[in-house]
UniProtKB/TrEMBL annotation:
Keywords: FAD, Flavoprotein, Oxidoreductase
Similarity comment: family membership: Belongs to the oxygen-dependent FAD-linked oxidoreductase family.
Name used for this protein in its record: FAD-binding oxidoreductase
Location of the FAD-binding PCMH-type domain: 23-187
Domain of life: Bacteria
Organism for this UniProt entry: Nonomuraea typhae
A Pfam entry, by short name: FAD_binding_4
Cofactor requirements of the protein: FAD
Amino acid sequence: MKVIHPGDPGYQARRKAFLGTLTEELPAAVACCDTEQDILAAMELAGARGLPFVLRGGGHSFAEHSTTTGLVVDLGAMKRIEIGRDTVRVGPGVQIGELARRLAGHGRMVPSGWCPTVGVIGAVLGGGYGVFSRLHGLGADHVLAARVILADGRIVDAPDDLLWALRGAGAGNFGVVTELTLRTRPVVPITTVQATCAYGEAAALVDAWQHWAPEAPDEVNLEIAVISGDEPGEAPYAVLFGVVAGPEEQAAKLLGELEQAAKLLGGLPALEEVRLTRLEGAAAACHHAYADDSGGAVTDLPLGERPGLRLNKSGFFPGRLPRQAIEDLLDRLAADRVYGEIRDLEFVPWAGAIGRVAPDATAFVHRGPRFLLKQSVQVGFRATDERRKDAHAWLNRSWARLSPWVSGVYPNYPDAGLEGWAQAYYGGNLARLRQVKNAYDPAAVFRFAQSL
């Protein structure tokens, strides 16, 4: 086990380029673990020094739960991938893109997430929504087994009650998951969809989408992003993007259905720059493109700079938003824009295979919503403290207006400022989760700001 302190080589590289909170917690040390024995040694070190510790796999927590002023137990080097006939065993350092590439060579895939640089285990333990989740279900629904280091130092194969809890609420709450066994699926050909829509017609597009997308066939996973860029003089715009697990003709037909839904609601937004691209084999399995084709790329923090800020609010919507609320939301996205500040909305369809699992079958309770909405604001490395606080205040004001329609929050989109977070993340499964926590970690050895 290698321990890195401030000023040592490698310390700077473990800082995030963009934070999800106004302040950055810099760890007193980072323990770089290669084995389970390293993890045990790191836990002992934290105890001996009286330091709080947190676990870090991919390190993408929106609420910065993977950092601390104490000891960060970094699992990023634990990249074991063992592929079976229809299963795969992965370590906590494996990223979604890495796993997709390895499995693609065997004609297999796992619907574990979207961004290729996110850790597989962290994503799956919080739900694991991805490109193929409406077709096959969440990553959490593909967990078959887990190997876990418990608070008392035992290394176990998770019993049924613990495995249930890990499938949706397991990220850092009950122990260190050093290996997951996941069910894999055969790779299917897809058609990727990318189309833009003028900002003035975005409300009509969103309204039609929220009526149509949750009822669309399981093969359809089309999102909408509405983006207000960092140049106030440039108009915001909307992008319809995602995949259809079928041929181009089917994708084109489905776009026609969306346009018909808009027409029935009294509007007909013009989709422009429509691109339908057929992908097969490894190209289909490794498709991760977002609205801007970035694939969720993460920028390294330049030397000498402090991290930028990317703040998020999100929630599930069990019903449809009134058209007036959609228009109000979009108006606020474009109002009082500031140079250097990026604002965006992401509408994610739910239902499909996700909704055919009972809310209490796993710890992931959010099976019934129609869609998920995430609202974000971003400022760069050199933004002043005042500019950062203003962006934070804008996001809070804007999101508060949606509260009458929100019911629940995706655990993988944690919100450091969320009141009633435990109920929002875990709903009706909360009481049972607390029983599991008490059974396996009664002294709360594994704890962070929003741990059970």
